[in-house]
Specification:
Number of strands: 8
Helix content: 40-55%
Strand content: 15-25%
Number of domains: 1
Number of helices: 9
Shape: globular
CATH superfamily: P-loop containing nucleotide triphosphate hydrolases
Structural class: alpha/beta
Radius of gyration: 17 Å
CATH class: Alpha Beta
CATH architecture: 3-Layer(aba) Sandwich
Order of helices and strands: EHEHHEEEHHEHEHHEH
Bound molecules: 2'-deoxycytidine-5'-monophosphate
Length: 227
């Protein structure tokens, strides 16, 4: 079995690359940001302040999250209901970032993430996969790109989904979110000491996937891990 961790700031292309790599290697892709987004969604639906740690922690026992896969695409099921793209709005990005700074939320999601990686080979993307969730992952990648590139990609992605957003708005939200995610006290979004930092600002998604696939295969050869 193999564990591949891909961390990095929002919009660095983690999910695109991880999904493609998972399909090539025939392993499961886990988008952990979706779990924080789901908690954010529930907190919003209860009209609770996502920065209020105590109030959010009180809601956790009522939350049951399952992951399902349809043609390789991850679906999150919250208390029996599939959420689809409802968790992908800019508002949910901010809610997810706010709840992700609450220690009780991180503790709540820890086992969900680790138990998937115990069952099968995975490529998991997030912020603390290489540092906290899978500290012994076979391959750790910290994927980065310039803020402008990331905001441009995220804007195009949201517009393609039919949302009305501007580049300036996406850039400023993204910078605020990255600042909060990388400076929070628990599990900040930083590269693990043994991660390879990979800047894909000037690469197409295909080029990036190709290079990362080569990195994974080289590691597999060196360590004897099996896909
Ligand atoms: O990857 P994303 O944009 O879907 O993540 C949404 C938020 O969730 C992000 O702002 C920070 C948080 N997050 C986290 O703290 N740890 C993870 N492993 C994944 C996401």
């Amino acid at each position: 079995m193999i564990q591949i961790a891909i961390d990095g700031p929002s919009g660095a292309g983690k999910s695109t690359v991880a999904k493609a790599l998972a399909a090539k290697l025939g392993i499961v892709y886990v988008d952990t940001g979706a779990l924080y987004r789901t908690i954010g969604y529930y907190v919003r639906s209860k009209d609770v302040d996502p920065h209020d740690g105590e109030a959010v922690a009180k809601l956790l026992p009522d939350i049951h999250i399952e992951l399902a896969y349809e043609n390789g695409t991850q679906q999150v099921i919250l208390n029996g209901v599939a959420l689809g793209d409802k968790i992908r709005t800019p508002e949910m990005s901010m809610y997810a970032s706010a709840v992700s700074a609450i220690p009780a939320v991180r503790a709540f999601l820890l086992e969900t993430q680790r138990s998937i990686a115990r069952k099968c080979s995975v490529i998991m993307d997030g912020r603390d996969i290489g540092t906290v969730i899978l500290p012994n992952a076979d391959v750790k990648i910290f994927l980065v790109a310039s803020a402008e590139c990331r905001a441009r990609r995220r804007t195009d992605e949201l517009i393609a989904k039919g949302m009305q957003v501007s580049y300036e708005e996406v850039l400023s939200d993204m910078q605020a979110r990255d600042r909060a995610d990388s400076t929070r006290e628990v599990a900040p979004a930083v590269a693990a000491a043994d991660a390879v930092t990979f800047d894909n600002s000037w690469m197409t998604p295909d080029e990036c996937v190709e290079k990362l696939e080569a990195l994974v295969l080289a590691t597999v050869q060196k360590t004897g891990a099996t896909v």
